[in-house]
Amino acid sequence: MYKKIDEILGSNKCNIIKVIDKGWSNDKKYYIETNNGKRLLLRISDISHFEKKKQEYEAVKKLDDFDILMSRPIDFGACNDGKEVYSLLTWIDGNNAEEILPTLSNEEQYKLGLKAGKVLRKIHQISPLEDQIPWEERFNCKIDRNIKAYQTCEIKFKDADKIISYINNNRYLLKNRQQSFQHGDYHVGNMIVSRNGEIGIIDFNRLDYGDPWEEFNRITWCADVSKLFASGRINGYFNGDVPDSFFKLMALYIGSNQLSSVPWAIKFGQTQVDIMIEQAQKIIKSYNGFQTYIPNWYVPNYND
Predict the structure, then answer these.
(1) SS (H, E, C) 71-103
(2) Of 84, 124, 195, 246, which one has the fewest beta carbons inside 10 Å?
(3) How far apart are CA 182 and CA 124, in angstroms?
(4) Has residue 297 been placed in a domain?
(5) Tens of pLDDT along 217-255?
(6) Is the CB of residue 92 less than 8 Å from the CB of residue 20?
């Protein structure tokens, strides 16, 4: 391992190397401190992922000119005699938002949510690739896949039919939706809080291009940790003026994502399946059996 890392770093020798075992990515991840004081994040994958990792690296570089606290790309290439591909990035300090939010005051939670929403708005300023399939066509195919994956899955959860009904009744909302760059997995598990109270964004390895509002499909994980943070994230994104159509689409995106979560979880074992079933029930309850489209955790205005 050390020989491989020395090859990547060149003259910058390592003082500290720590394996990072958090997250769902198959990448091998390392925290590195060099002898000249640099603190880095190294991600290594099998060479079969070269083109995908190259696209990810080049896409993240588009954010270089944006004032966002995030790991910045430094270098990319093949290593280990061409058997693996690596991405080298700057390291950002902070505490995991999922862990730190419950320790903060209500006001601090909400303000961090506002910041997270504004950061996401910046990310969505990056234009999509020119050859993107129209969003209505693309996401309807995804909905069909998610419904089929759930219906053919041996594990079911209560009131899934209500999610499916809502989705099918609101597919028309996908028409003429614009697309942009997407982080791809934007929730508290991929955010850090710095010492001076700034929100930092990590793990862009699921980045994509699509409807920017789809980025709210995992906001339920934020709401589980802090309703005020999740509400602030919405209000900050829209600068306090949230359109009604957003909530209708967010419910569709959350519902579609949740349908696919149980089939996805099976390969990770019963514990993950149980987590996703519990999450599905929380979501269905928050939408009153999908009879409403604004979740009951949402706070339109917060005043301490």
Answers:
(1) CCEEEEEEECCCCEEEEEEECCCCEEHHHHHHH
(2) 195
(3) 6
(4) no
(5) 999 999 999 999 999 999 999 998 999 999 999 999 999
(6) no
| Pairwise CA distance, residues 109 & 225, whole Å | 10
Buried b / exposed e over 176-206, threshold 16 CB at 10 Å, is ebebbbbbbbbbbbbbbbeeeeebbbbbbbe
Name the band, by pLDDT with cuts 50, 70 and 90, for residue 4.
Answer: low
Between the two ends of the chain, the Cα-to-Cα distance in Å is 51
Out of 63, 90, 117, pick the residue that ends a domain. 90
Helices and strands of the chain, counted as H and E runs: 10, 11
Q: pLDDT, tens digit, for every residue of 133-161?
A: 999 999 999 999 999 999 999 999 999 99
**Does residue 124 sit in the same domain as residue 34?**
no
Give the C-alpha separation, 167 to 182, whole Å: 22
Please report, for the domain that includes residue 51, its CATH number.
3.30.200.20
User: CA dihedral in degrees (21, 24, 29, 31; nearest 10)?
Assistant: -60
Cα(250)–Cα(229) distance, integer angstroms:
16
Instruction: Classify 33 as helix, strand or coil.
Output: strand
